[in-house]
Write a structure and sequence with these properties.
Elements (H helix, E strand, L loop, with lengths): L8 H7 L1 H15 L18 H5 L13 H4 L10 E21 L2 E23 L3 E24 L6 E26 L2 E29 L2 E32 L4 E28 L20 E11 L2 E3 L3 E11 L2 E10 L3 E2 L9 E12 L3 E10 L17 E14 L3 E19 L2 E20 L1
Antiparallel strand pairs: 1-2, 1-17, 2-3, 3-4, 4-5, 5-6, 6-7, 7-8, 7-10, 9-12, 10-11, 11-13, 13-14, 14-15, 15-16, 16-17
C-alpha cells in the first residue's frame, strides 16, 4: 500500500469531511436492510409465452395457448386439441450504469442467466355438468438472474481515500405454477379462471472495503494513521403466496376481439433475514495496529471495532398489487394480426418503505405477419415502468431511485399445422435516477437483452 504525506488533523477534518461522508454513506446505504432489489418493481423483465413474447406481451385478446393462463384464461377455451408448449431463455443480460456515484466515477451492475421462462400443457376434457372445457397447467418464471458488481476506486475523488472496493452478488428468482380451466361461450368467445402458487427467492451478498488516510492527531503528532473498514452484508428474501385470475375473451365481427382479465394476489409467507458484519482497524505506515487516542473528537478513535448484527422480519408486505388487463386484437387479413394491451398494476403497501408500490399503467402493441402460410414474423413494443413508490414519498429514509424501461421484441420461425417453432429477441432500455449515495441523485441507465427459443406442439 502506498502511503502519502501526513496531513495535520484540523486541516484534514475540514477538507475531508465530505470525502469521509461519501465513503461512509456508501456503507450506510448497503447496511440498510432492503426487502427486494429493483426487479420486483418491474412487471415485464421477461415476456411470457412463445407467441405472446413476439407481440411484446400484447396477448390478452388472443390467449389461445396455455400462456393464456398468465394473460387471460378465457382465451384458452379456443383450443381444439391437446397442446404442449414452452420457451427457454438461452441468453439473458442486464446492465445498469450509475453515473457519478463516487466523485466522477460510475458504478456498473450486471445480471445474467439462462432459464426456462415458460412451460405449459393444456387439453380438452368432458365433465358431467360443465360439458367440454379446456384445462391447463403452466410453470412460469417471470424473472430470474445472477447479478454481479465489482467496483474498485483508488486515490479518488480525494487523496485521503486510498482504496474503495465493493463487490455485490445477487441470486434472484420468481416463479409461478398455474392451474386453470376455460369454457367456450360462443364460437369465438370464452371465459376462464386460474389459480397460481407464487414463489420469490432472492439472496444478496455485499462486501465493501475502504482504506482512508493518512490522518494525524495532536496526541500522535509524529504518526500517520490509516483507517481500514470492512463490511459484509447478507440479505435473504423469501415470499410465498397465491393468486386467482379470471378473464373473458369476446370475438366480434370483422376479425375484432376483446379481452379482459383481473388478478388478485396474497402473500401468505414472508421472511427477510439480514446479517451485517463491520470491522474497523487503525494502523501506522508500517501496517502495525495502533490505538487512536480516545480524547480525539472524531469517530475514528479506538483500536479495533467489530460490529455484528442479525435480524429477521416477517409479514412486511400488507398489500400485494392486483392486475387488470384490457386487450384488443384485429385480424383484417388471414395473414395479418394486430394487438394492443393496457395493463393496470395496482398499488402495494407494507411496513417497510422499500416494498411500497405505486399504481402504474403499462402498454404493449404487437403485429404478426404470416408469409406463405408457414413463416411468421412478429414484432412488439412495450413499456416496463418502475412501480416503486419512492419517487412519490417525502420521507428522508426512502430511496429516491427508479428506472423506467421501454422495449421492443422481434421473433420469427415456422408456424406449421401442428406446431409453432421460433427464435425471439427482446431488448429494453431504461432511464432514471438512483441513490447509491443517500441524498445524491445519480443519473442511471439500464439495458436488458433476452434471446430465447420456443416450441409448441398440438396432438389431435
Amino acid at each position: 500500500m502506498k502511503r502519502k504525506k501526513s496531513t495535520p488533523f484540523p486541516i484534514f477534518f475540514k477538507r475531508a469531511t465530505l470525502t469521509t461522508a461519501c465513503a461512509f454513506s456508501l456503507f450506510v446505504y448497503s447496511s440498510r436492510p432492503l426487502t427486494a432489489s429493483a426487479d420486483l418493481f418491474h412487471y415485464n423483465n421477461l415476456l411470457i409465452g412463445q407467441r405472446a413474447s413476439g407481440l411484446g406481451g400484447a396477448y390478452t385478446a388472443i390467449s389461445e395457448d396455455t400462456s393464456g393462463l398468465f394473460y387471460n384464461p378465457g382465451g384458452m377455451a379456443m383450443q381444439n386439441a391437446t397442446e404442449l408448449n414452452g420457451s427457454i431463455n438461452t441468453f439473458y443480460l442486464k446492465k445498469n450504469r450509475y453515473e457519478k456515484v463516487f466523485g466522477d466515477k460510475a458504478f456498473e451492475e450486471s445480471a445474467r442467466g439462462s432459464v426456462s421462462s415458460f412451460f405449459g400443457l393444456s387439453q380438452k376434457v368432458n365433465l358431467p355438468i360443465f360439458g367440454q372445457i379446456s384445462v391447463g397447467l403452466a410453470f412460469i418464471n417471470p424473472d430470474a438472474a445472477l447479478s454481479d458488481e465489482n467496483a474498485l476506486i483508488e486515490n479518488e475523488p480525494d487523496p485521503n481515500v486510498i482504496r474503495y472496493h465493493r463487490t455485490t452478488n445477487i441470486r434472484s428468482g420468481a416463479s409461478q405454477v398455474i392451474l386453470g380451466a376455460a369454457k367456450k361461450i360462443s364460437a369465438e368467445s370464452g371465459f376462464g379462471c386460474a389459480a397460481a402458487y407464487l414463489d420469490v427467492d432472492e439472496l444478496e451478498q455485499i462486501y465493501q472495503d475502504v482504506v482512508q488516510g493518512p490522518f494525524t492527531f495532536e496526541e500522535l503528532p509524529d504518526t500517520s494513521v490509516y483507517s481500514t473498514l470492512g463490511q459484509n452484508v447478507r440479505t435473504h428474501l423469501v415470499m410465498r403466496g397465491g393468486s386467482a385470475r379470471c378473464g373473458i375473451r369476446i370475438g366480434l365481427k370483422n376479425g375484432l376481439r376483446l379481452g379482459l382479465s383481473y388478478q388478485h394476489s396474497q402473500m401468505v409467507y414472508q421472511r427477510l433475514d439480514y446479517d451485517q458484519e463491520i470491522n474497523k482497524v487503525f494502523t501506522d505506515a508500517n501496517n502495525t495496529v495502533i490505538q487512536v487516542p480516545s480524547s480525539s473528537k472524531t469517530n475514528l478513535k479506538g483500536t479495533l471495532l467489530r460490529s455484528v448484527m442479525r435480524s429477521t422480519q416477517d409479514n412486511f408486505v400488507s398489500e400485494w398489487p392486483d392486475e387488470l388487463r384490457l386487450g384488443f386484437a384485429y385480424q383484417p387479413k388471414p395473414f395479418l394480426t394486430l394487438t394492443a394491451d393496457i395493463v393496470r398494476h395496482g398499488p402495494g403497501d407494507g411496513s417497510l418503505p422499500s416494498v411500497k408500490r405505486r399504481e402504474i399503467l403499462n402498454f404493449a402493441a404487437g403485429s404478426e405477419i404470416i408469409l406463405g402460410n408457414i413463416i411468421f414474423i412478429r414484432t412488439g413494443y412495450f413499456t416496463n415502468t418502475d412501480a416503486t413508490a419512492s419517487r412519490d414519498l417525502s420521507s428522508d429514509n426512502q430511496r429516491k431511485e427508479y428506472i423506467d424501461y421501454k422495449g421492443v421484441s422481434l421473433s420469427t420461425g415456422l408456424r406449421l399445422r401442428n406446431g409453432d417453432y421460433g427464435l425471439h429477441y427482446t431488448e429494453q432500455r431504461g432511464f432514471g435516477l438512483a441513490e447509491k449515495v443517500p441524498g445524491k441523485s445519480n443519473p442511471t441507465t439500464g439495458r436488458l437483452q433476452v434471446i430465447s427459443i420456443s416450441a409448441s406442439q398440438s396432438f389431435q
